[in-house]
Amino acid sequence: MVGWTIAGVCIAVGAALTGAAVSAVSSYKQGKAQQKMNQYQADVANQQAVLAQRAADQQSALEQLKAQRETKQLHRKYMVLEGIQKAARAASGVGGASVTEGDIATDTFRSKTLDELAIRYNADLKSWDLKQHAGLEKWGLSNQANMYGMAGRYAMQAGQYAAAGSIISGAGQAANYGMSYSSYKGANTTNTTKTTTNTY
Q1: What is the average pLDDT across 160-184?
Q2: How many domains does the chain have?
Q3: Burial of 34 (0-12, 13-18, 19+ CB in 10 A)
Q4: How many CB atoms lie within 10 A of CB 48?
Q5: Is the pTM above the cut of 0.70?
Q6: Picking from 10-24, 39-53, 65-79, 111-125, which range would have the lowest pLDDT averaged per residue?
């Protein structure tokens, strides 16, 4: 009977230690997997930040090209308008040195300059807005990436602590089984001795 009891205790201790080891490995691997997932999310957020900045830079460049095209079209429009004005003045007999001709030319030049400035201002404003928005998006995504990285490190630490806790718990259970067996064996030895003494 004592042989079976020792075997039972050995099995219980072995099972406790095996369970602790399996639990420890599982906790560690779970922490490692969580860390990898968070690192992946951090990498994605960083990549999105880079892409957002690139997209804003490209869109800004397109806005500047659009403004250049609009300015060229405006020049052509005003060249045609100036030609029409000269032809109209010549047909009406207004001379080259008249006040009216100078006023018309000055007014046309002023309108052309203001339109050019408006085109340039709008393009610059749109470019600035795109870059500001991209900068804020990049900042937010970089912060998100940092948070994912921190969460990954904490997940790994939690996995390590859980693994250590499993090992300590399993060792405690194994020790408890051993102590229970020792108490049982000691109690059995005392009872056997008392019974033997009483029979003499």
Answers
A1: 79
A2: 1
A3: middle
A4: 17
A5: no
A6: 10-24
